Amino acid sequence: GENVEQHPSTLSVQEGDSAVIKCTYSDSASNYFPWYKQELGKGPQLIIDIRSNVGEKKDQRIAVTLNKTAKHFSLHITETQPEDSAVYFCAAKREAAGNKLTFGGGTRVLVKP
Amino acid sequence: GAVVSQHPSRVICKSGTSVKIECRSLDFQATTMFWYRQFPKQSLMLMATSNEGSKATYEQGVEKDKFLINHASLTLSTLTVTSAHPEDSSFYICSATRFQSNTDTQYFGPGTRLTVL
């Protein structure tokens, strides 16, 4: 089955700096890679996703890059703000009805004002 | 769009009682819903996959007789924790899959905090 590794487990950045979280996956058939943000006591919120037909996707201050050959993908947050502080999860799956996501272990991001 | 709700948001019960948690997709139909549990500072652990009109598929190690899942409609799935014990205390989160434009995207509910005394 799929295995997703996520690094780092914790990340502390100064407000305004960039944050980068990296994930690797094992199943070369995986073609869908979402990122979720989870604030304390809440459910995960989808913030961006990428499918294997593209190498990069951007939405305002967040971007995701995908390297299919190396089987890794990364989340980039620019101009970080205190409200970006949360736990971020990457995930991977083969996109088909009913298929389940495999999650990374999570990265706790702290943005210091 | 793509809103998933859960009810209740938190529940405290006595050991031995049963607790039902509802998961609803509010603005889309979801043929597949998933149930997760999450312990503090850990990742999400998939418990089961719930398909409308059929039996749920449980992950290895999850007792199907203890965690009863019903997916009676395209917008509602329920998880019942039967004969709850303190070790069942956890954060339970559901998700629903929206199929659109030949792609499917998973959206999560806000979670239910279960405390068993």
How would you describe what is shown here?
The complex is a heterodimer of chains A (113) and B (117). With 113 residues, chain A is mostly beta strands. Chain A is built from no helices and eleven strands. In chain A, the strands form two sheets. In chain A, strands 2, 4, 5, 9, 10 and 11 form a six-stranded mixed sheet that branches. A five-stranded antiparallel sheet of chain A has the order 1-3-8-7-6, with no helix packed on it. In chain A, strand 6 and strand 7 form a beta hairpin. Chain A is globular and about 40 Å long. The termini of chain A are far apart. With 117 residues, chain B is mainly β. Chain B has no helices and eleven strands. In chain B, the strands form two sheets. In chain B, strands 2, 4, 5, 6, 9, 10 and 11 form a seven-stranded mixed sheet that branches. Chain B has a four-stranded antiparallel sheet with strand order 1-3-8-7, with no helix packed on it. The N and C termini of chain B lie far apart (37 Å). Chain B is globular and about 45 Å long. The chains are: A mainly beta (113), B mainly beta (117). Chains A and B meet through strand 4 and strand 5 of A and strand 5, strand 9 and strand 10 of B.
Query: Biggest β-sheet of chain B, characterized?
Result: 7 strands, mixed
Q: Order of helices and strands of chain B, N to C?
A: EEEEEEEEEEE
- Based on CA inertia axes, which overall geometry of chain B fits? globular
Distance between the termini of chain A: 41 Å
- Cα gyration radius of chain B (Å): 14 Å
Q: How many strands, what sense, and barrel or not for the largest sheet of chain A?
A: 6 strands, mixed
DSSP strand count of chain B: 11
**Approximately what portion of the residues of chain B adopt beta-strand conformation?**
over 45%
